[in-house]
Protein backbone atom coordinates (compact mmCIF):
# COMPACT_ATOMS: atom_id res chain seq x y z
CA UNK A 1 0.00 0.00 0.00
CA UNK A 2 1.39 3.41 -0.96
CA UNK A 3 0.95 6.45 1.17
CA UNK A 4 0.07 9.78 -0.38
CA UNK A 5 2.27 12.74 0.52
CA UNK A 6 0.74 16.08 -0.52
CA UNK A 7 3.12 18.21 -2.55
CA UNK A 8 5.73 15.53 -3.21
CA UNK A 9 4.52 14.21 -6.57
CA UNK A 10 6.40 15.90 -9.43
CA UNK A 11 3.11 17.07 -10.99
CA UNK A 12 3.14 19.86 -8.41
CA UNK A 13 6.06 21.33 -10.36
CA UNK A 14 4.00 21.75 -13.53
CA UNK A 15 3.23 25.32 -14.50
CA UNK A 16 -0.50 25.69 -15.22
CA UNK A 17 0.14 28.61 -17.58
CA UNK A 18 2.61 26.66 -19.70
CA UNK A 19 0.88 23.27 -19.42
CA UNK A 20 -1.86 23.96 -21.99
CA UNK A 21 -0.75 22.25 -25.23
CA UNK A 22 -0.74 25.34 -27.46
CA UNK A 23 1.04 27.49 -24.86
CA UNK A 24 3.56 24.71 -24.23
CA UNK A 25 4.22 24.55 -27.98
CA UNK A 26 4.65 28.33 -28.19
CA UNK A 27 7.08 28.42 -25.27
CA UNK A 28 9.03 25.43 -26.64
CA UNK A 29 9.34 27.18 -30.00
CA UNK A 30 10.53 30.40 -28.37
CA UNK A 31 12.98 28.55 -26.11
CA UNK A 32 14.98 27.60 -29.20
CA UNK A 33 15.70 31.23 -30.18
CA UNK A 34 16.33 34.70 -28.80
CA UNK A 35 13.19 35.92 -30.56
CA UNK A 36 10.87 34.76 -33.32
CA UNK A 37 8.53 36.50 -35.72
CA UNK A 38 4.81 36.05 -34.99
CA UNK A 39 4.15 34.37 -38.36
CA UNK A 40 6.97 31.87 -37.82
CA UNK A 41 5.58 30.86 -34.42
CA UNK A 42 2.03 30.68 -35.84
CA UNK A 43 3.14 28.39 -38.66
CA UNK A 44 5.39 26.26 -36.44
CA UNK A 45 2.67 25.71 -33.82
CA UNK A 46 0.01 25.34 -36.54
CA UNK A 47 -2.61 27.72 -35.13
CA UNK A 48 -4.49 30.73 -36.45
CA UNK A 49 -3.46 34.33 -35.82
CA UNK A 50 -6.30 34.76 -33.32
CA UNK A 51 -5.42 31.62 -31.35
CA UNK A 52 -1.75 32.62 -31.21
CA UNK A 53 -2.64 36.17 -30.16
CA UNK A 54 -4.88 34.95 -27.34
CA UNK A 55 -2.35 32.44 -26.04
CA UNK A 56 0.53 34.92 -26.29
CA UNK A 57 -1.62 37.37 -24.31
CA UNK A 58 -1.90 34.82 -21.52
CA UNK A 59 1.85 34.16 -21.57
CA UNK A 60 2.60 37.89 -21.67
CA UNK A 61 0.30 38.56 -18.69
CA UNK A 62 2.17 35.85 -16.76
CA UNK A 63 5.45 37.61 -17.57
CA UNK A 64 6.73 34.71 -19.69
CA UNK A 65 6.71 36.31 -23.15
CA UNK A 66 7.72 39.77 -24.35
CA UNK A 67 6.03 41.16 -27.46
CA UNK A 68 7.86 43.69 -29.62
CA UNK A 69 6.30 45.46 -32.60
CA UNK A 70 8.20 47.12 -35.40
CA UNK A 71 8.65 47.27 -39.13
CA UNK A 72 10.62 45.44 -41.77
CA UNK A 73 10.66 47.98 -44.57
CA UNK A 74 7.11 49.28 -44.60
CA UNK A 75 5.57 46.07 -43.30
CA UNK A 76 4.54 45.83 -39.65
CA UNK A 77 5.99 42.88 -37.76
CA UNK A 78 5.56 41.40 -34.31
CA UNK A 79 8.34 39.50 -32.57
CA UNK A 80 7.94 37.21 -29.59
CA UNK A 81 10.61 36.30 -27.07
CA UNK A 82 10.75 34.42 -23.81
CA UNK A 83 11.58 36.56 -20.82
CA UNK A 84 14.10 35.29 -18.26
CA UNK A 85 11.12 34.29 -16.08
CA UNK A 86 9.62 32.47 -19.07
CA UNK A 87 12.83 30.55 -19.70
CA UNK A 88 13.07 29.58 -16.02
CA UNK A 89 9.41 28.52 -15.92
CA UNK A 90 9.82 26.44 -19.09
CA UNK A 91 12.94 24.72 -17.70
CA UNK A 92 11.15 23.93 -14.43
CA UNK A 93 8.07 22.67 -16.28
CA UNK A 94 10.18 20.38 -18.48
CA UNK A 95 12.00 19.08 -15.41
CA UNK A 96 8.64 18.28 -13.78
CA UNK A 97 7.54 16.41 -16.93
CA UNK A 98 10.78 14.40 -16.91
CA UNK A 99 10.34 13.62 -13.21
CA UNK A 100 6.77 12.42 -13.81
CA UNK A 101 7.95 10.17 -16.65
CA UNK A 102 10.79 8.80 -14.53
CA UNK A 103 8.49 8.18 -11.57
CA UNK A 104 6.12 6.22 -13.81
CA UNK A 105 9.00 4.25 -15.35
CA UNK A 106 10.33 3.32 -11.89
CA UNK A 107 7.10 1.60 -10.88
TrEMBL record:
Domain of life: Bacteria
Domain Winged helix DNA-binding: 22-100
A UniProt-annotated Pfam family: HTH_34
Taxonomic source organism: Streptomyces auratus AGR0001
Protein name, as recorded: Transcriptional regulator
Amino acid sequence: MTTSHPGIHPRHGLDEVIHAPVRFSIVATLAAADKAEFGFVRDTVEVSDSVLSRQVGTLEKAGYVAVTKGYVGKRPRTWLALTPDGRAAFAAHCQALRAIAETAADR
